[in-house]
Amino acid sequence: MILSQIDTLLIGGPKDFRSDGTKSAMARDPVDHPVMLRKLGFEGDQVADPTVHGGIDKAVHFYPAEHYPKWIAHFAAQDMAHSLLEKAGAFGENISASGLTEEKVRIGDRYRIGKALVEISQGRQPCWKIDHHFSVLGLSALVIKTGRCGGYFRVIEEGEVAPADQIVQVEQAPHDWTIQHVFHLLIGGGHRSPDAATELKALRDLSTLAESWRGRAAKLLR
After folding, report:
1. Residue 189 domain flag
2. pLDDT tens digit sequence for 111-153
3. Are 167 and 3 in contact (CB under 8 A)?
4. Of 157, 23, 42, nearest to 95 (Cα)?
5. Residue 117 maps to which CATH number?
6. Backbone dihedral angles phi then psi of residue 42, each to the nearest 5 degrees
7. HEC profile of 75-117
8. How many CB atoms sit inside 10 A of residue 127's CB?
9. Which of 19, 80, 126, 160 is a Cys-bridge partner for 140, taking CB atoms 3.0 to 4.6 Å apart?
10. Per-residue pLDDT, 52
């Protein structure tokens, strides 16, 4: 069972993102006080484009703190440094914490965070906004290649969450579908494997997987 703790709790809303009027909520700000977590996310937290972000299955975005040194090392190898990586929130997460890496957590795992009960629903599929946010072309593709995607919680029981609250796993899903495995299959190209059909059928029918990703599994089967 996983026992972790919130390193940083971040809340934000849509801000100007590009000169064409595009907005993004990726630049969230750390908070130092308890926040109520509702079914659709933290009070005061908003998304810019609800057609692809937010909703029941994407209520809370978490990102493993362990990935930051890896990204810093990657940029250093390119003789680059990036100020966004100096603090949590660079990937638009609501919760930065250690111990929730993609190879450990499973779809359907449940955690008590403060007074709220949450469940892992899917990984986070990166898009062009990560490239623009970092001003690095191809970064989203590298996220896919490395599998450092982070993930989403859906909210089972609403409750107050405070910075530094423990993240306590209270139930482990009765299968081996980690975020890493699911992400590779649905987003990272694993569906091209000759024996992928059986796995795609299993994901299509996995009730705790986000509805949109179950639909993606069904579409890849076709």
Report:
1. no
2. 999 999 999 999 999 999 999 999 999 999 999 999 999 999 9
3. yes
4. 42
5. 2.40.33.20
6. -70, 140
7. HHHCCCCCHHHHCCCCCCCCEEECCCCCCCCECCCEEEECCEE
8. 13
9. 126
10. 79
Give 90-93's long-range contacts (Cβ < 8 A, gap of 24+): 90/133, 90/134, 91/26, 91/63, 91/124, 91/130, 91/150, 92/24, 92/25, 92/26, 92/27, 92/28, 92/61, 92/63, 92/133, 93/10, 93/28, 93/61, 93/62, 93/63, 93/150
Residue 8 is assigned to a structural domain of this protein: yes
Range of the domain at 159: 3-174
Higher pLDDT, 54 or 102: 102
The model scores a pTM over 0.85: yes
Nearest to 125 by CA among 193, 189, 41, 221: 189
* Number of domains within the chain: 1
Average pLDDT over residues 42-69: 92
What gap in Å lies between CA 195 and CA 19, rounded to an integer?
A: 45
Report if residue 48 sits inside a domain.
Answer: yes
Confirm whether 99 is domain-assigned.
yes
Name the amino acid, one letter, at 124: R
Q: How confident is the model at residue 75 (pLDDT cuts 50, 70, 90)?
A: very high
pLDDT at 160 over 80: yes
Split at pLDDT 50, 70, 90, the class of 21 is confident
